[in-house]
Please model this.
Amino acid sequence: MTIFSNVDLSAANTLRLPCQAERFAAPTTLTALRQTLAQACRKGWPVTLLGGGSNVLLPEKLPGLVVRPALQQFWLSQHQGDVLAHVGAGVSWHTLVMTTAARGLWGIENLALIPGSCGAAPVQNIGAYGVELADTLQAVQVMELATGRVDWLNAQQCTFGYRDSIFKGELAGSVVITRLVLRLSRTPAPRLGYGDLAARLVGSLTPLAVAEAVCAIRREKLPDPQVLANAGSFFKNPLVTDAQAVELLHQYPAMPHFPQQGGQTKLAAGWLIDQCGLKGMRDGAFGVHQHQALVLVHFGGGDRQGLMKTASYIADQVEAHFGIRLEPEPRLVNPY
Ligand code: EPU
Model:
């Protein structure tokens, strides 16, 4: 178990925000993780958990200990005619998608090219192209920070919602996700209803073909964090009442809208920002991506404070135009 001091995390978050961690560890086994957490407990170091860094807003200084679980196990097992994928928290999500799709397994092919680690995936219930992690997730293994005790949650206990789960609420800051179990299938089950996904697919329909079509769409619209720093969608798509949606549709008949359960309608935050004329705008070190208004990009030299200023400006403009307040999607990691 190695604990490093004064680690620069600017390359460990896809927004490339400057961040100095007082201490950093990346344990590769449950035993090493337990020992690391025990030491933090003994010394009174506050613990911050980090996955692939693709959905976090880091402060300039992080005191205490940053832990990035690097458990890399992966295996498949048979279960009642389906296939269970068991995967360690440190495995890259995209690698898991491409590996299972290449083996002809259906279930997560629509979630290709989402950056980040498998351990981070349940926290915000990652979703794209009509599919969410919650659709295939069977169980999550967690380790309690305070005791090192390992426990399992089934999908129901995770209380998944749109970009939401128990790991953002009740269990935030008290457990580390260490392993996922996903239920995949050899029986063809393509979900091609979102956008122009179906139109992109010609020839034989395999999980790999779907994953590759999703990658192609994402590459066209979303900036590659290796080239231009970003954290994917910066705002959540807002939920409004059906009555509010009807009122807005009178004014904007072309407004994308997605009816949900419980008398609510989801609107497209990217469309709202775009309508305010903000697509492609630049504000110092930050800007709105030119092909997808929901993505904020970092051109370099900025920090979290600057990013939050740009984000507030955008949210203010949308609120002034539509009376809807947008909320950031990435997790705000606070200094203690
Ligand atoms: N739109 C615009 N202008 C824009 C962006 C979008 O008019 O600049 C319109 C589109 O034309 C479309 C609607 O808004 O009618 C929705 O756009 P899109 O299909 O691109 O999806 P999104 O709602 O902007 C969500 C997820 C993405 C996910 C896509 C595809 C959220 C916050 N974002 O984006 O997730 O990839 O759907 O399923 O739910 C992420 O979470 O980081 C992410 C990229």
The mean pLDDT is 97. The chain has three domains: 4-67, 74-218, 223-332.
